[in-house]
Structure formats: structure tokens, C-alpha cells
Design a protein that fits this description.
Length: 193
Amino acid sequence: MLELSRRERKKQETYERLYKTALQLFQTQGYETTSVEQITQLADVGKGTFYNYFESKEAVALEFSRRHYQRLIQKGRSTQKNSIKERLSELLEAWADFMIHEREMTWVTIKNREDGELDKGLHYGIIGVLTLAQREGEISDRFNPDFLAESLEGMVLQHFIRWHVTQEGEFKEEMQQIVSLFLEGMAVQKINA
């Protein structure tokens, strides 16, 4: 493993200090009320330094979501379940927990996604689960796994947006219903002779 130069280590340390300071402020006083100036003051760097590492405070929220999605995928890879329903349920339940617990950050991430997409890590994780399910004959192979993942994510995001705005219903229960609806629609069709 290559050792980082002193300059590279300092850059990485500054990036992490800004990131952690921003998250600390977001959690204690809220995302909306936190300013870049507050972040840089607490991190003890100049305001311009923040913009050398992050385009905006929204970029910090996107990085927070990206890191969390990576942890979800890693956890999913390490704990294999038997069926597609169990795999998807576990992944979507963990995603729902994150969205509920980090409601404000999730909202920021959804509002500020670029090119109509969220972090691709989670997307590719869902594609992986669906591809394996198709290979094992658990779901129909009539549709491209990428299309299926986008469809599933779209259903989840739409329900989150409604739940966030109206504050009605049980989001985790809706996630389980989404998995059931999705899988029942993708069930392999048996031909009756």
C-alpha cells in the first residue's frame, strides 16, 4: 500500500475535519440553519478552504448519503439471505431506517441530486440483488435489472416524498408493501398445461 505524502495527508485531514464539523452542526442545529461560515469557523479554516473541498453545503449532505449507502451495500454483501424477498427487504428496511432517522439530510439529498439520480452505489447494489435473483430464477428475466432497479427506487422515493411532505403513514410499512408489490409483479409465470 502506498503511503500518502504529507501534503496529501493534510488535504485528507482537512476534508474530513470539514465534513465531520458540518455533520456535527447539521445534527445540533439543523441543516437549514447551518451556514458555511459556521462550519469553517468551527473547523478553524478559511471560508475559501471549504469551497476547495466541497462545492456547497449540499455536497456535504450528498457525501453523507453516499457513505451511508456504501455501508448498506457492504452490510448486504456480508449477510446473505436465502431469498430475493429477504435480501430486498433487508436492504430496503435499512434504507428506510436511514431515511427516517436522517429525514432532513435525505430530503436535501433528494432535492439536490444531479441529473435525476441518487448515489449510484445503492443503485448498483440493488441491480446486483436483482441480477442474482434473475439468474437463480426467483424473478422473471423479462426486464433489464437496471430498469427494475430504477423502477423500485422510483417507488421508494415517491413514497418518501409523500411521507416527508404530509407526515402521514408508516414509511417502513410502506417499504415492505413496495417489496411485496414489486416481487409479486416480477414473479416467474408458471404455464398451466
